[in-house]
Structure formats: C-alpha cells, structure tokens
Write a structure and sequence with these properties.
This protein is mainly α. The protein contains 2 helices and no strands. It has a domain of about 70 residues.
Length: about 100
C-alpha cells in the first residue's frame, strides 16, 4: 500500500510538471507566433512606406525641371542680360558725348 501512495504522488508530480511544461511551451509558441505576425506587419508597413517614398522621390524628380531653372539656362540668361547692359552702356556713352 505504501508503494501505491508513492506511485500516486510521483504520478501526480510528473503530471503537474508535464502540464506546466506544456502550458509554458504553449505560451512560448504563442508569443513566437505573435512576434512573427508583428514582424510580417512591420515588414508590410516598411514596404509600403518605402514604396510611398519612392513614389514621392519620382514625383519630385519629375517636378524639378518644371519648378527650377537649370544652371546652363541661367547662364544663358545672364549672358544675354550682360549683352543688353553692355549695349545700354554704349548708348549712354554715345549720348553723353
């Protein structure tokens, strides 16, 4: 009878340990799955943000020629203005003589 009581105690002890180990494994795997889901969600958000950033950069690159003056165009404009001012200076010099 004494052996039977020890056997029950050992069986209950290992049953409780097995239950707790299984419960801990369930919690760990549940957290691992949640972490994987969060990583997928973050990856999707990063991909969407990257795509939006690329679209914004493309739109900016396409709008730059419309909004800003190129350096060579400005140089051409400056050269023409210099020529006109030179002509005006010549006319003023001729008028003063």
């Amino acid at each position: 009878m004494e052996l039977f009581n020890w056997q029950i105690i050992i069986n209950v002890f290992f049953g409780v340990i097995t239950f707790l180990a299984g419960w801990m494994l369930k919690i760990i795997f549940g957290l691992f799955n949640k972490l994987q889901d969060d990583m997928k969600e973050l990856s999707n958000e990063i991909h969407e943000a990257h795509s939006k950033t690329q679209e914004d950069l493309v739109a900016l690159a396409l709008s730059i020629p419309e909004k800003y003056l190129r350096k060579d165009d400005f140089q051409n404009f400056a050269d023409r203005m210099d020529e006109r001012f030179d002509k005006l200076d010549e006319k003023l010099d001729r008028l003063q003589k």
